[in-house]
Write a structure and sequence with these properties.
single chain; mainly alpha; Serine Threonine Protein Phosphatase 5, Tetratricopeptide repeat; two-stranded antiparallel sheet; two-stranded antiparallel ribbon; 4 strands; about 5% strand
Length: about 550
């Protein structure tokens, strides 16, 4: 036993050793509650269910935390057909004692059979409908509903009580007695059932009471008195019929037909409408149940369809992300290239170009394509910035370390190689290497100058002039600025000389054309005059040479 004030375990003392509360009255109340519980248990064992309910309620009134009494009360309710009340008691018991409570087993046993639970709920609804019919005076409908209730829930005591009462009201004492006898087998000491049973027995007794004879004897006596008279002759009683004629067969047949017609009329006007209404009500309930079930299933299907669409969309998104990670240009491939570059940097420190190529392959085709000269200043295609949302800190740190250390060495290597190729006359190879140098080191004036020289030597004066101009404008303090100016000046003079030479060549071409035309005219004249053409031509050519 625990203290009602602090919850500590109590000892044999009259007070709580923890909080000091007086527990004499509390112990007396608990003992009294346990006594009522024991009384209810004994009554339940002998199937005095109504008496057990009274005792258990009294126990809970004294100690609402008496879990055993509450669980037993739920069992008694369930045995009496009141499943809702039983579940209510077990739920309260579960809230009072969440752990190691047998109420869990009771609720699981009830809820594990949803069909049985649904049938019990339907029986309660039909009982309420029967009660409504009885209050409205529709006793036949009430009786029909109660019979259906007892078919579904044969332990519902209140249904037996109401059905027996309806039979008593319609003076069907035999049927009332049979129904109440079935109820007494479930609850042997139910006061209301015993009272109704007594009423039925009294009704049966009054029906066959009177002058001590049975009802059949009274009817026979009445019929004899109406059809005959009696008189006494000495010590004998003589009964003489008044009319010795017997009833004709035709009148009996007509009487039977009339009774049959009256019975059919009663059946048509009283019983059939009630049965039709009952069947219609049941059918409407079934249709409503089917409609509700279809609505719930349709809603469930719609929800599943939406869930399937969401899962498909999520699947496509995940597939796209997986393709981005595992594709040829995905993150996994980029991590592999970075690892290869780091390994090459460690194993072959002098292989700067190889390491640089591996770093460039990290981004593959994602490098933005640009021109040599952009705007009014020298620019270059640079590697894209590493987005912290995409690349981890380790990836960015390793890449930046390798790129910073390798870029300078790689740029110098490309410049030296380009200068050698320029001096060897390999202008296109020089342009390629020097372009890579400008991409790696966009601020290298040396790389830009020799790139311009390579373009100039390859005959691409447009790009050469552009780069010379940008060096002069953007890098005025560079040691290559003056050389760029000289290259620009020399390039202009060369263009002028090329123009003069072209003009002289044009004039010579024009002179040759005039001479050819003159010779052709002279030859034509000589042919017409009949002169010797070869001699004239030779003379003309000699004059032309002079």
């Amino acid at each position: 036993m625990r203290c009602f004030n602090c919850g500590c375990e109590l000892t044999r003392n009259d007070f709580c050793t923890n909080c000091g509360a007086d527990i004499n009255e509390y112990r007396r109340i608990v003992r009294l509650s346990n006594g009522y519980y024991n009384d209810g248990l004994m009554k339940a064992k002998v199937r005095d269910l109504s008496g057990a309910v009274v005792s258990l309620r009294a126990s809970l009134k004294l100690n609402r935390n008496n879990v055993d009494a509450r669980n037993l009360l739920g069992l008694v309710y369930f045995e009496m057909g009141e499943a809702v009340a039983a579940l209510s008691e077990w739920v309260v018991s579960k809230n009072i004692k969440p752990d190691k409570n047998i109420a869990d087993d009771f609720m699981e046993a009830v809820q594990s059979n949803p069909g049985r639970l649904t049938a019990i709920n339907q029986s309660i609804k039909k009982y309420n409908q029967a009660l409504l019919y009885a209050r409205q005076g529709s006793l036949d409908l009430a009786v029909i509903q109660l019979k259906k209730v007892l078919q579904v829930n044969p332990n519902l005591i209140v249904a037996y009580e109401l059905l027996g009462l309806l039979y008593l009201q319609s003076e069907e004492f035999n049927r009332a007695k049979r129904v109440l006898t079935l109820a007494s087998k479930i609850d042997r000491n139910n006061t209301r059932i015993l009272y109704y049973m007594r009423e039925a027995e009294e009704g049966l007794a009054l029906r066959y009471a009177g002058d001590g004879r049975s009802g059949r004897d009274r009817k026979k006596s009445a019929a004899t008195a109406s059809d005959s008279f009696q008189y006494t002759s000495g010590n004998e009683v003589i009964i003489q019929p008044i009319n010795n004629t017997e009833k004709k067969g035709m009148s009996s047949f007509i009487t039977m037909l009339i009774g049959l017609a009256v019975g059919c009329a009663l059946m048509f006007f009283l019983v059939l409408p009630a049965r039709i209404r009952s069947a219609s009500s049941d059918m409407n309930e079934q249709m409503q149940g089917i409609s509700d079930e279809l609505t719930a299933k349709n809603a469930d299907l719609e929800e599943k369809d939406k869930r399937i669409e969401a899962l498909q969309s999520e699947n496509e998104t995940v597939k796209g992300q997986l393709a981005e990670l595992t594709g040829s240009s995905g993150m996994v491939e980029r991590y592999d290239h970075l690892a290869d570059a780091a390994l090459n940097y460690i194993q072959h420190p002098d292989d700067v170009m190889g390491t640089e190529a591996m770093l460039e392959s990290i981004f593959g085709d994602s490098l933005p394509a640009g021109d040599i000269v952009s705007g009014n200043s020298i620019s270059a295609n640079t590697l894209p910035a590493l987005d912290p949302a995409i690349y981890s800190a380790s990836f960015r740190n390793l890449y930046e370390y390798l790129n910073d250390d390798v870029s300078y060495k790689a740029a110098s290597t490309y410049i030296d190689r380009g200068k050698e190729e320029l001096s060897d006359g390999q202008y296109q190879a020089a342009i390629g290497d020097l372009l890579k140098a400008t991409e790696i080191a966009p601020g290298s004036d040396e790389a830009w100058f020799y790139l311009a020289e390579s373009y100039r030597e390859s005959g691409d004066s447009v790009h050469a002039t552009q780069i010379y101009s940008r060096i002069v404008n953007d890098m005025p303090d560079s040691e290559y600025a003056d050389r760029a100016k000289k290259s620009l000046t020399n390039g202009a003079a060369t263009d002028n000389e090329t123009g003069d030479t072209a003009q002289t060549q044009q004039e010579e071409n024009n002179t040759d054309d005039d001479l050819a035309q003159a010779l052709a005219a002279q030859a034509l004249q000589q042919a017409m005059a009949g002169a010797a053409v070869p001699d004239n031509i030779e003379n003309t050519e000699g004059a032309a040479q002079q």
